[in-house]
Amino acid sequence: MSLNRRDALRVLSQGAAGTATLAACGTAQASAKNRPIAPDRDAVGMLYDATICTGCKACVSACTSANGLVPDTVLSNGLWQMPQDLNAQTKNIIKLARGEDTAETSYVKRQCMHCLEPACVSGCPFGALMKRGTDGVVTWDADRCIGCRYCEVACPFEVPKFEWANFNPRIVKCELCSHRLADGGQPACTEVCPTHAVIFGTRSDLLAEAKARIERSPGRYFEDRVYGEKDGGGTQVLYLSGLPFANLGLPTLGEESVAAYGSKVHSVVYKWLALPLTLYVFLTAIIKRRFDSHEDHAQNKAKQTGLPSQL
Amino acid sequence: MLPWQRGVHVYDVPFFSLPFLIFLALTLIGLGLSVLRAFGGLGFTGMSDAYAWGIWKTFNVMTLTALGSGGFAIGIAAWIFKWERLHLVMRTALLTSFVFYFAGLLALTVDVGRPWNMWHLLFPSHWNPESSLLEVAVCMPLYAMIFLAYENLPPLWERLYVHASDGIRRAMRSVFPVLKWLYPFFVAGAYVLPAMHQSSLGALLLLSGDKLHPLWQSQMLPLLYVIQAGVAGTACVMVTLMAGCLVWRRRLDLTTLGDLGKLMGYISLLFLALRWGDIIARGQLGAAFTSDGFSVLFHVENLSVLVPTLFMLQPKQRRRPRVLFLSAVTAMLGAMMYRFIPTTIAFVPGELKFYFPSALEVLMSAGYVSLTIVLYTAAVKLFAIVPASLEEWYEAVAWARENFRTIRVDSHGKATRD
Ligand code: SF4
Ligand code: SF4
Ligand code: SF4
Asked: Is the shortest distance between the CB of A259 and ligand 3 below 6 Å?
């Protein structure tokens, strides 16, 4: 995800437009906003320690009210909030996870991971999903979203949800309570957590804290590592767990982000599309020649036979 | 002289035949539901957050625009590689391409949840240049509605001209040189743009990462998608031509169809070499030979391209109508599978989730498919598109001179003044 590629892609998009409309295009501002910020400065996030979480779900209801969502009460026949999974009414959920053969259980909190190189941002056509340059929070803009749901296809954590039945459907996902951050506050979920199982901070502080915990209690944490430090290119929400991360439903991802994997090809494609204008000029030159001789031939034939020529 | 000499309109059949009316009805139902859908959400579909893309995108757009790549593939063979005989089927290829793209774009518009924000498309400064979907969204309408539409002009132009009054003819004659001069510029664009968006359709799947089965997930997807579009497009033109001959009882031209078969065989070979090379290079050969459903699917998909290719590379087989037709149909299905499987069947988002389109979704999808048939059959009845013999041409001209008072042509079909 280097500057080079961004520039290359900008050329590409302009080339596409150029080929097409021959119109001058503005600078592709969207790309600048989409870039990941330097991972260890300013980026804010959360650290969730599954070994501390008691599954009280205070964060779930706090999230719902802080974000003006209508509690999902389908399963409980309207009695209380009981989402089955993240959905268009639920940006945050506590789930029960089980170990493989043991009866060991753990809770897991799921919400947007605020990836360092988010696939959702990479695919979003008009930059409705953006990675904020200031703190790396991935936000959604209703005025730029066309409702294509590519973000849902792309997100490796299956976070964005779509209001299927709504006439004016929105993409619903945790935006790290950006409205609260703007007021100098912290996310609702970290604020209410009674055991401090989930805490808010800068990514570098949280990473240091997580590593300190691992050091303090060897063997307590799965693989003695922090999920999200490098997984999927790194995320701003970090996890510590006693159970294998896969059991918590956190996907096993390599260190390369999906966005990087996807754009690598984009840049290869760019190699033969970066020159769309060159290719276009080249093809025009060939076809023009072919066309002229083809037409000559057709006109001659038309004269001989008396039939109108057909292109 | 070969049986096929020039495009001739299908003049001797009723415009509103029974099958036409059935397809028209299906189209109207599909379009009607699309209008209704504009007033509600997408809750009635089988789509879910896990399977956020349903058949409108995966079948009507991904799969059917591949079938609509005949104008692209055959055009390159005819114009750039100087395969002269293929010019004869270009009109058919361009028309099939246009109708598939038109219907695909319609499906895309209906599928989008917040269409009122599509205006961002007009402002390059609002684009996210990293997004393959953006490229598709920009390139596809541009190609279909401008470049491909332009390529489709000549038959329309001819018909207008022979019916036009002197004044209009004069006006048409004065702009004609300009239009003709511009033609090569549009043709060239009509090859650059599909290369871009057909590859971007493949690139779309890259971001789905591990959700897509490793037999399909590959950095080669963009390239494979363009090449497979060539197979699908060529096969589709063959099927369309032969089905047309069957329905309207016209003579087959086995030499020209054989040429198409040969072209399809060449492109398929290239595709298969790259497909298998990619599987081997990524070390996924093992995954291709397990007993699970995916490897079965993989082989069905591959054999559907390989077997017809083996037939189409033999000159003797290319002269047999039955073999030509079956090969084209099989290769077309194989190509369609390659487009459809990765977005639906081999796309497995975690846990136990399932997608099956709802009845209304299928009905709308069928409506868009019917639309292509309706547009195609209507166009070939009105314009000189489908290739036929000279006798056929003379008969059609005589028929038109008898039936249209406005038409002014001589017995050869050439415009006359009076
Ligand atoms: S978790 Fe998904 S939605 Fe959140 S930033 Fe990453 S890719 Fe985007
Ligand atoms: S649904 Fe909206 S937010 Fe998601 S990728 Fe499409 S335009 Fe972007
Ligand atoms: S940060 Fe805000 S939106 Fe995100 S899970 Fe916590 S409370 Fe919900």
From this structure: no
Say how far apart CA A281 and CA A90 lie, in whole Å.
52
Return the residue in A149, A270, A282 with the most chain B beta carbons within 10 A, the one to mutate for interface testing. Answer: A149
| Chain A: residue whose CA lies nearest to B94 | A311
A149 lines ligand 2 (CB under 6 A): yes
Q: Which of residues 287-306 of A touch B (CB under 8 A)?
A: 287-288, 290-291, 294-295, 305-306
* Mutation test residue for ligand 1: of A114, A132, A152, the one with most atoms within 8 Å of CB: A114
CB spacing of A12 vs B82 below 8 angstroms: no
Can you give the residue ranges of every domain in chain A?
1-35, 37-249
Q: Which chain B residue shows the shortest CA-CA distance from A130? A: B128
ipTM field: 0.93
Confidence of residue A81 (pLDDT cuts 50, 70, 90): very high
A95-to-A56, A64, A177, B200, B278 alpha-carbon distances in Å: 11, 16, 21, 37, 40
In this structure, which residue's CA is closest to atom 3 in ligand 3?
A174
What integer pLDDT is reported at residue A13 of this predicted model? 41
Judged by CB atoms closer than 8 Å, whether chains meet at B138 and A20 is answered as: yes
Per-residue pLDDT reduced to its tens digit, B207-252: 999 999 999 999 999 999 999 999 999 999 999 999 999 999 889 9
pTM of the model: 0.91
Residue A49 to chain B, least CA–CA distance (Å): 23
Residue B369: what pLDDT?
Answer: 97
Q: Is the CB of A236 under 6 A from ligand 3?
A: no
Give the C-alpha separation, A214 to A207, whole Å. 11
Closest CA to B109 of A147, A7, A247: A147
Interface check for B43 against chain A (CB to CB < 8 A): the answer is: yes
B264/B211 Cα distance (integer angstroms): 31
As for ligand 1, residues whose beta carbon falls within 6 Å of it are A 112-115, 118-120, 138, 155, 157, 159-160, 173
pLDDT for B40 equals 82
Residue A102, judged by CB atoms within 10 A of its CB (0-12, 13-18, 19+), counts as: exposed
DSSP-H helix ranges across A117-257: 119-123, 150-154, 178-182, 188-192, 203-216
User: Are the CB atoms for A157 and A93 separated by under 8 Å?
Assistant: no
Percent of chain A having pLDDT more than 90?
A: 72
**Minimal CA separation from A218 to chain B, in Å:** 31
Q: Which amino acid is at B369?
A: V
Q: Do A146 and B222 touch (CB under 8 A)?
A: no
pLDDT of B42 higher than 60: yes
Q: Which of A104-108, A168-172, B14-18, B39-43 has the lowest mean pLDDT?
A: B39-43
Phi, psi dihedral angles at A23 (to 5 degrees): -90, 150
Distance CA B140, CA A57 (A): 47
Give me the residues paired with residue A129 across strands. A140
The conformation of residue B126, written as its DSSP 8-state character, comes to G
CA A297 to chain centre: 56
Which CATH architecture best describes the domain A37-249? 2-Layer Sandwich (3.30)
Residue-wise pLDDT tens digits, A139-184: 999 999 999 999 999 999 999 999 999 989 999 999 999 999 999 9
Q: What is the mean pLDDT of residues A230-250?
A: 95
Q: A147: Cβ below 6 Å to ligand 2?
A: yes
Residue B351 region, left (φ>0) first, then alpha (ψ -120 to 50), else beta? left
